[in-house]
Amino acid sequence: MISLRPPRFDELGLRRALSDRMLPLLVAAMAFLAALAMAGWFGTAALSRHWQQGAGASLTVQVPNATEPATRGDQTRLAAALGVLTGTPGVASARALSDRELSDLLKPWLGDGAARLAIPIPAVIAVRLTDRSADLEPLSRRLAEVSPGTLVEDHGIWIRRLAVLARSLQACAGLALLLVSGVAAAVIAVATRAGLSTRREAIEIVHGLGATDSYIAGRFAGRATLLAAVGAAGGAIAALPVLLALASLAAPFVGTGDVGPNISGDATAMMRDVLDALPVPLWFALPCLPVGAGLIGYATAHGAVRRWLRRLP
Predict the structure, then answer these.
(1) Residues near 133 by Cβ (< 8 Å), separated by ≥ 6?
(2) Please, are residues 142 and 23 in contact by the beta-carbon 8 Å criterion?
(3) Which pLDDT tens digit goes with each residue over 105-157?
């Protein structure tokens, strides 16, 4: 059977019903916001994981009067505390901070005169743990026996607060993503209804000649899918420089270093810096934006056309 229908024949006037200018632009804006929301989700998860693996597995031990003799043996209080720490199961390492490191820690509050303070400063021991859930009470008691007044500062309470903050930020990012998806669906629905109203007479004629509801809805849905996917791809590409800039600012907080301009001109190194700047899951999530927008466009347009056709006489 020979079809008399010319190739790419637009009998419904879809190019006029669904313009390829306004709808892709609006979807691109929604995709841009969705990319930022996803970056917030994955970035917050990466920061939380880094902080839990870092500060969550560390302790700070303060030893007052560190150079005085310990209550047991002939060691100083600092040496005795280090001996207790290094001999405790679950402690990976224990290192006393130098005077220069202590001065650097106090400099933000006391300025350059921190090293010339007349008051005694307790020695500080940085401890790394192999088990973050270890019970610290026995360790605190043993430290107090050899060096009374020693303080053990657990970072667990701050890690728990940071975890709650991270989950709250992820919930906000997820809510923003849902809102953006809803707004995109509403935009596509409004554009589809406007296109139906514009091409009402042509649709009624084609429908009267035997075109099924599925055929008409499928044609509109295909057009909406294409425009939504193209717009979302443009929005994702437009968001990429912003995401790279934000990742560069956040890099020092996740231990990846600062991602700055590559002055050597090495193209491979520059590409590696770009790839390392963003969380790996985000690279897989960004290409999903056009796919998700296309699915939203298809479902929304198909449903809107179906409902509109049911009201035809």
Answers:
(1) none
(2) no
(3) 777 666 665 556 656 778 888 888 776 666 678 888 888 888 888 888 776 67
Torsion, Cα 132 135 137 142, to 10 degrees, reads -80
In this structure, the chain runs to a length of: 313
Identify whether the C-beta of residue 42 lies closer than 8 Å to the C-beta of residue 281. Answer: yes
Q: Residue 191 has which token pair?
A: 């554009």
The residue type found at 97 is L
Q: Please, are residues 88 and 139 in contact by the beta-carbon 8 Å criterion? A: yes
Q: Is the model's pLDDT at 234 over the cut of 90?
A: yes
11-27 pLDDT, tens per residue?
555 666 666 678 889 99
Tokens in use for 187?
């935009």
Segment 77-104 shows an average pLDDT of: 84
Under a CB-based contact definition with an 8 Å cutoff, are residues 68 and 77 in contact? yes
CB-CB contact of 270 with 157 (8 Å): no
